[in-house]
Amino acid sequence: MTDTATAARRPGEQALSALGLGAPALDPADASTHTFPDGGRWRTEIPSCEGPEALAVILKESSRLDVPIHRISQGSGVWMLTDAEITEMVEATAERDIELCLFTGPRGTWDIGGSVRSDSRGGGLRARGHDAVAGCVEDAVRATELGVKCLLVADEGVLWTLHRARVAGIIPADTTLKVSALIGPVNPAAYAVYEKLGADSLNVPSDLTLDHLTEIRRVSAAPMDMYIEAPDDLGGYIRMYEVAELIRRGAPLYLKFGLSKAPGIYPWGTHLRDVTLDTARERVRRGRLALDLLARHGADGDMAPLGSRLPGSLNRFPVESATD
């Protein structure tokens, strides 16, 4: 680990120190000792890219604003895209050496079950019953056959099933599995379990404290995904001024550039075209703002090389064969 993050200038530090209001020194013990396999401490992700047209907008805007992108993810699901649309997205991201991540299958909010619409939101976004799990697996097989290398999941059983499918060669061994922010773990014990179930990166809620991130990093090196700006339905939290410290505590970390005060667009369709393209463009701009903050604070070093996508060696539960 380099000392870039620990040497970074903290926001307002010089002015506040001159006024006798300086912050306590950072504790080196709080810093994550983990990195991506190439030594990088952070990567970037643009979420909610709902089709080829939105992808084209993101790629154009990222070139214009010089925003490096490691991963682009989609939220509506594999089933909401045609084979031709998926192929177009796979080819466009491959040209830029960007990982494309598509969401798998049915989830509770798009099912007939009533518990998720109750006051308790029971069941949440998880896959209800065998058929919902089967739909997620169907999506995974279809997407990977079309060249998609990263799958987003919102159910622990689906995660374990897809990890087993990966081990068995049903989907490619280098497929990465990403845990959705909709079920993100909120404590180190849960985080470690998700890693063992097959997660290669895990969204955590954007309201976790810096100490929570340090607690997680003391038990797991699995890459962490965090919305630097969260959509309203995930709290609308904006943590842009904390980016340097989020990296110092949470590395290896994907910086996700979401957007608050924006309409929901899942499940996407052409009736939502204008807002989808406008918000896609603005997410890239939010990324530029966060990267500018990192640069101003001297904390923009240690970015993982563009094109890197694998998580490194992680801890897994043993996978038994189907005949055991």
Explain what you see.
The chain is α/β, with parallel strands linked by helices and 324 residues long. 36% of the residues lie in helices and 11% in strands. It has ten helices and eight strands. The protein has an eight-stranded parallel beta barrel, surrounded by six helices. Strand 4 (150-153), helix 6 and strand 5 (176-179) form a beta-alpha-beta unit. Helix 3 packs parallel to helix 10 (273-296) and helix 8 (210-217) packs parallel to helix 9.
Q: Would you summarize the structure shown here?
A:
By secondary structure, the protein is an alpha/beta fold.
Structural class label: alpha/beta
Average pLDDT number: 91
Query: Strands of the largest sheet, in order across it?
Result: 1-2-3-4-5-6-7-8
Rg, please? 19 Å
The 3D shape can be described as: globular
Distance between the termini: 42 Å
**Portion of residues within helices:** 25-40%
What is the count of helical runs? 10
Strand content: 5-15%
How many strand segments?
8
Q: Give the low-confidence spans.
A: none
The ordered string of helix (H) and strand (E) elements is HHEHEHEHEHEHEHEHEH
Q: The biggest beta sheet, please? A: 8 strands, parallel, barrel
